[in-house]
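Anyone? Bumping this.
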Amino acid sequence: MSNIVVDKSKVPWWVSNVIVPLVNLTLALLVSGLFVFIAGENPIEAVKLIIYGSFGYIQGFAYTLYYTTNFIFTGLAFAVAFHCRLFNIGGEGQAYIGGLGVFLVAINLSFLPVPIVWLLAIFGAFLFGAAWAYIPAYLQSKRGSHVVITTIMFNFIASSLMIFLLVDVIRDTNQMAPHTVKLPEEIWLPSFEAFSGILGIKIRYSPLNLTFLLAIASLFFVWFLVWKTKWGYEMRAVGHNTQAAIYAGISPHKNIIIAMCISGGLAGLLGVNEILGVSHKIQAGFPAGYGFTGIAVALMGRNHPIGILPAAFLFGILYQGGSEVTFEMPNITRYMFVAVQGLIILFSGALENLFRPQIESFFVRRLNREVNA
Amino acid sequence: MEFLSDIASLINSTLRISTPLVFAAMAGIFAERSGVIDFSLEGKMLMAAFVAAVGSYYLGNPWLGLLLAIIVCVCLSMLHGFASVTHKGDQVVSCVAINILIIGLTTALAAAWFGQAGLTPTLNEDQRFLEIHLPFSDALRDIPVIGTLYSDILSGHYIFVYLAYLSVPLVFWIVFKTSFGLRLRAVGENPSAVDTAGINVFTMRYKALAINGVLIAFAGAHLSTAVNANFFREMSAGRGYLALAAMIFGKWHPKTALIACLLFGFTDALQIRLQGVELPAIGEIPVQLIQAIPYVLTVVLLAGFVGKAIAPNAIGQPYIKER
């Protein structure tokens, strides 16, 4: 299998960046179908439900885009750190703490004019998320503690810390459940309902809000930062070959810290969507696995914003369509979609070279034939 | 006397709580000594817990459940090997994939098959492992010191507890005293030298991963068919990562890894004891913060305030045979 040697320079970009990822995705979805079958449901019916749930009606589609927003943030978060060869699997905890940042800024500064509160709250989310990623980054760079273990531990610690705060410190004392009070309505981010009225569509409720545009802006921000700035170049150099980077006078320590802080900050922005946009309060466990899904999104999108956008959208479809499936099919729970994420990470990340040589050589041979003919 | 029995029960629970960590750390030593990173201990432990619980529920025998768990965990280790040894995929990505896949799959299947929110049915006495009372433990209980040591600390554990501590000298012997162990360590340090000596690097890594799968299955079975009588969602609760941290802290060496596991176990046992207790000067610590102590300790230990850990030289790198 590995005997096939392909001249990389002859492989067209769309083969390695479009065809191969699509083949890997198809494999992951086929195995997912098998799992659905094992759980005692019809996979084809499940696919129909997913498509109907995510595209079939305007409210469903709005939900799809709302999930997409979250996945863009967490996907970008993983991708930025990955370019420095850091596995930030702590997006979950960074998002949780980022939510705290949004809430604290918004509740304390709600007297300020509206767009300024928003900007400060976004900044707060970024800062808190970045701060939570700073310690693992520091320990990785100075003490060599593997960032995978420390970020996972920081997920657990964030969860304990937030539950403690929600139960004992910032709980809405009029309620039994551990969540905070609601933010004043004036500073909520406008939701899609408001826009849909202008467009002449009437929908009852939609979690989609202005944060979607922030997510799109983040895609451009990451693209510019990683590929168009000196710092992005240095960071990728450290990730690619640390020794060579040191020889070129680039500090790995500085770049590890910056990469992780930006990564954590991007994960923190999830809090903007969830708290300023949707629930307007901190609820226990609000990151709900979005941080982990970001890993799958980034690996599927080949860690590039252009790939992350469709990957995030695909996961939006899976999430929204998935909730339709869990509603209609009693044997399928949302955990089935966690398993699907695992399969997507497996096939588009770890096993990405499974069929790559065959596919690439197939296309190279075909193109050669065309040239010769 | 009450103080003494407190200490005895603390040591007793330390031994019990450390058990899955010890198995997982020993499993980690095999994989990582051969040059393969294994963060998927967490997922495999969870899978073993699920398979052991479901297996012994249907087959009526916990040993058959354990056997199934071993088979499934070895398969998962082979999957990790297939992705990261054969296809030279990223080892960390492969582990993360396995962990997320297992978290989803176990809970989804438990819900689909048993209809409860990620729980498997409670096992009866025939379907689970029971505590073993060593001979004469009742008779010796009243003798001071020896009685406490023998009857309250050493006796009355599940079989896995004894197996875990027996596995440590066994792993030490295999890794450091046999030719297999020498090859294993060499493959992790300098695979091309091993290849030159005519030993197949890939086969060695697959063998190491197979042993890794067997050991981690015991950890999972301990959780779901011994200390608990069923599987519940995410019941491994980060133990795979704790064990890996213990192994790193123990410098990839069975004896020191054991000490680190016991330290984690002790912290966890202490954490459970401290819940709801008024401490002098501090008062009662909120339970959420106490529960975070093992995780904080992991970070502190990994930060290497007790000396830098040096990993096997070739760890994390797929071996590419030159032609």
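Late reply, but here is one note on the structure posted above: Residues 18-119+157-302 of chain B form a domain with the ABC transporter involved in vitamin B12 uptake, BtuC fold (CATH 1.10.3470).
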